[in-house]
Amino acid sequence: MALVSKDIDSAFDGAGAKPGLEIWCVENLRLVPLPTSLHGRFYSGSAYIVLNTVLLKNGSPLHEIHYWLGKDANEVESALASDKALELDAALGSCTVQYREVQGQETEKFLSYFKPCIIPSEGVYLSQLGQLDSNTYKVSLLKCKGDHVVSVKEVPFSRSSLNHNDVFILDTASKIFLFSGCNSSIQERAKALEVVQYVKENKHGGKCEVATIEDGKFVGDSDVGEFWSFFGGYAPIPRDIAFDVQKECDTSPVQLSWITTQGKLCPKASNSLNKEMLDSNKCYMLDGGAEIFVWMGRNTSLTERKMSISVIEDFLRNQGRSTATHLTFLTEGLETSLFRSFFESWPQVEPNLYEEGRGKVAAIFKKQGYEVKELPDAEDCQPYINCQGKLKVWRVDGDELILVPAQEQIKLFSGDCYVVQYTYAGDGRDENLFYAWLGRASALEDRADAITHMTAIADSTKGDPVLARVMQDKEPLQLLLIFQTVIILKGGLSKRYRTFIAENGILDETYEEGKPALFRVQGTSPSSMQAIQVDQVSSSLNSSYCYILQTGRSTLTWMGNLSSTIDHDLLDRMLELINPTWQPISVREGSEPDIFWEALGGKTEYPREQEIKQHIEDPHLFAFMFADGDFKVKEIYNFTQDDLTTEDVLLLDCHEEIYVWIGCHANVKSKQQALMFGLNFLENAQLVGGLSIETPIYVVTEGKEPLFFTRFFEWDSSKANMLGNSFERKLAILKGKKPILDHRSPSYKRKIFAEGRVWSTIANEHCYRFSVQEHIFHVSHFLLAIWLATRLIPIISSRKASCRETTPDNSRSNSVSSNGRGSSLSNTSSVSGSKSKSANNHLFSGPTPIARMLFPGSPDGSAGSPQAEAKSPPDANLMQVDSSITTANTLTYPYSRLIVGSSDPATDIDVTRREAYLSDEEFLEKFGMMRKAFYQFAKWRQNKLKLSLQLF
Predict the structure, then answer these.
(1) I need a surface site. Which of 131, 538, 866, 917 has the fewest CB within 10 A?
(2) How far apart are CA 763 and CA 765, in angstroms?
(3) Which residues pair with residue 27 across a beta bridge?
């Protein structure tokens, strides 16, 4: 879109040149810039324009524009605000996303700029009068909603304004009361306390009392009596008619309409949407129900865009649409992930932002007269933990873990899976970090066993270690720094891998010293270098790398024309590691001898361009939510450490890796569940965010976050050690207290496990779909529960028992047993689960939907590996279930007659084995697993499950 200076308001001169917020208010039909001291103070009779500028890690600026309309703002000023927002977009090169914000219905992104909240004032903003003081303090009642950002709305000071679902703040001259509805969440109450703190500091100068009132508890508390006295005395709050009236438009069909130059909407009839339907010369409206988008082609004029916005706002008024309907304006090429998710076909075109963005932002800054320093390059490849610790590597071979000798542990085979344990010195104690490394050609069953072995060993160690799933070729930087040197070889040693290639007549490519091989050498420094065996053909070459070619008779090193002196140094170092006896022939690209091309099967084309360095993505934080059988994620904007709420399970998306963070008070306690959530996120993020399903996944727990996680926050370690839920913690801080309890203390762990609840919801819904509203992932909880119960839990419980008796190696002499005391561990180099594990081999042999999700790649879940299709032989050491348990009872009773406290109990049963009298169908329905799988559990775990079902 061509820019014309006369079309741009002079108030926007210099806008967007510096990171941060800039705000303008419409006053007397002109724009008035607001000083920073007034940011966050809005008047209900005014309209505002808010510009947020962020300098991304890749060096390019991100601009987002919001125009905020007070509930009492007149139509002329509101229309002017929308027009000026477009002018500001044009002044910034038409590279912004714009949002309409209506008072009381603001987006969470907008509210996140003004933490903890915004509380609009009555009246209009007058720049010359400033703030007016009053001698009388006005008592006000505020309603607070939201668990990560809070929306504050002043409601009539009346008992009828109170309800059981929300949190309210009664602000009086001498005291602030917080009233928590009995149906409000702990997170909502905690966020409301931040509003209390804000009101206390800004309206009372930090000098007033604070009282908390809990809905339904009114006896013997003077604060309660004082609170109700403002409402004329206590009286019950009527029950709410409806708890949630949202989603009225969620099921409406998505409609795309062309906005003509005459201001008419022309619906485009189509059952599905794709990007090709959008013309760069036109503007369109996408009606998604609760969200409406205006898409503006690159070649449209400013006049056309202003007219389009006017048409859409008329459409909303004429349709009588709710003020909660969000309106977002997008320019071609800057579509949000939510917008793209409405389209079935949207090409993943990734612009070279890293290179282009540096020049653009520098040009903008210089044009505005600001000094421009060199923009930051990619982060240094520095370790964030002590990389001088102890490394142990086990190769997975079905039920066995085979310890890899120290001198061989840097060599990994692509047909195998490995468990890596790294122990390093932390803050006064040893910390453990575990990885399950899954070879690209490995079998599906071996991948499943690698996850199981990793969790079993991790559970047998002290502390609360970090776990990670890593796919070959997607290794995170931290793992490479731990290994320092990695050599990835073709083939494998796993029984499953070798059985498959033998049965299918596939050539065994397993590397052996002296056999012909081609290695690509890569890395950033001697502390992070890799050699990867690639196909021995010339198309495997790349001018950006160096290679080692072993022909069997001689060794040649090949240096690409685009490789650096650092690459050449790594080449020499790696050559000595692979085989120090080799005497290589050095070859430069373009001067290769004939024997070089003969060894590669002839000369063919290969990549000769400089590999573009991937631009650095800024991290994003998401919250997982579980409601009504839905598995949802919602982004938390402008996040800080305080957004890591102890009741939540959160996901930090860093693009190159993701972290699933488990709060101490979260309903989800199992790291296997957390890993599954991360995989579900990756599965669906491919639709809108371009994340690979093979992205590394870390699972970390509150209080045990590693430095390579905390580096994404301004981290205060004292906050990570506070006791209590989020409300109790913030209340203690508000009242000047700060209770701290070391996470290593047994009393802390006892409290956490006593308060913890296990997520075990089984939904009747059998579906898996992705919805555009709030990025909802509908997951079959039934499948998930069955999968976890019959695959992971029996294996883990049996392996836990074996790990407490024997360890995979002699790395530790003590472990925490089930009674909390240390136990001696025997020394062995492998762990066999054959005596404690049922036929779990065949449990993983079929690529179930969830197994495909856990070990992704090709449609059958084998990541392109034919090995995953191999059928495992029956387990000769299958644990036999006690026949007396399954055959002794010929009587069956319905579940309702077997539960403790039944109104019609069965009398002729063994009350210690109530579950044995259930029919097979009802047993599967209640326990989520077959009877045989249940009886393989340890007795304490059986009793725990029976207790949860009132059968014990």
Answers:
(1) 131
(2) 5
(3) 30
